[in-house]
């Protein structure tokens, strides 16, 4: 019975070593690409030169990156996986906007892990339109992920005329990404100095105060009805509404108005 356990442990250790090796090669290629782009220019640099500078073969380069512009963004794919894990493992009672803010903090930490590299990459993306477009495309992946997550916390049956939740979900996701980008750019322009996470937390407070009360808490069964929708009942001439504390005033008023129309 002990042999399978040993085998599993060996497989786990082997997997960790492979992941570490992959990470090391990607970082070496990224460093080589940034160095060559900075010294001889993006257009003048070839994939062969990047691979040679990193001490690997051309085919190894293409096992990790599809093009030379991808090479200076080695961590986005792994970070996207970590962000997805944050969303997937969130407590069902956590406000979805809080979860999204925790998710994009993982992106910020990717940049903050090696400030000097992030500052140099920022300089390159400002000078080379192709690199800037690649960065924009990478950021858009996070925004789509957050939008899907927020939209997933509304009852599909509630998507009707006059319901602003889907609109708020998309706008809030865009706002979170925009706040991250604003704070990150300011930090990079300051040469990566300062407490960037504290700056991002402040930006989140602004967003939450603006959107937090307007976004439902998801499909959590409660006394307030399915998915957090306020439960309204009529008792004679009195209308009683029971709602979650994070239900928006608009949600509560709509439910009361519907109950009065049905009376």
From TrEMBL:
UniProtKB keywords: DNA-binding
InterPro entries reported in the protein's UniProt record: DNA-bd_HTH_TetR-type_CS (IPR023772), Homeodomain-like_sf (IPR009057), HTH-type_TetR-like_transc_reg (IPR050109), HTH_TetR (IPR001647), MftR_C (IPR041347)
GO MF terms, alphabetically ordered: DNA-binding transcription factor activity; transcription cis-regulatory region binding
DNA-binding region per Swiss-Prot/TrEMBL record: 46-65
Coiled-coil stretches noted in the UniProt entry, renumbered to this chain: none
Residue ranges, annotated region (Disordered): 1-24
Start-end of Low complexity biased regions: 7-18
Domain HTH tetR-type per the UniProt entry, residue ranges: 23-83
Name this polypeptide is given: Transcriptional regulator, TetR family
UniProt organism field: Actinacidiphila yanglinensis
């Amino acid at each position: 019975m002990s042999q399978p356990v040993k085998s599993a442990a060996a497989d786990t250790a082997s997997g960790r070593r492979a992941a570490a090796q992959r990470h090391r090669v990607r970082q070496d290629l990224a460093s080589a690409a940034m160095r060559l782009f900075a010294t001889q220019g993006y257009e003048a640099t070839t994939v062969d030169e990047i691979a040679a500078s990193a001490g690997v073969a051309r085919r190894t380069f293409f096992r990790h990156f599809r093009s030379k512009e991808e090479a200076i963004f080695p961590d986005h794919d792994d970070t996207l996986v970590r962000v997805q894990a944050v969303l997937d493992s969130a407590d069902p009672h956590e406000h979805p906007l809080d979860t999204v803010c925790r998710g994009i903090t993982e992106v910020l930490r990717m940049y903050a892990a090696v400030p000097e590299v992030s500052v140099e990459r920022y300089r390159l993306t400002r000078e080379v339109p192709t690199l800037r477009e690649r960065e924009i495309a990478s950021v858009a992946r996070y925004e789509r992920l957050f939008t899907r997550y927020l939209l997933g916390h509304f009852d599909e049956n509630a998507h009707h005329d006059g319901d602003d939740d889907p609109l708020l979900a998309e706008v809030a996701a865009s706002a979170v990404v925009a706040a991250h980008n604003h704070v990150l750019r300011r930090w990079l322009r300051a040469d990566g100095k300062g407490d960037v996470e504290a700056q991002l937390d402040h930006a989140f407070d602004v967003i939450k105060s603006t959107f937090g009360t307007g976004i439902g808490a998801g499909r959590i069964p409660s006394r307030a009805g399915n998915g957090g929708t306020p439960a309204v009942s009529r008792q004679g001439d009195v209308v009683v509404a029971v709602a979650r504390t994070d239900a928006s005033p608009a949600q509560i008023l709509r439910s009361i108005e519907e109950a009065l129309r049905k009376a």
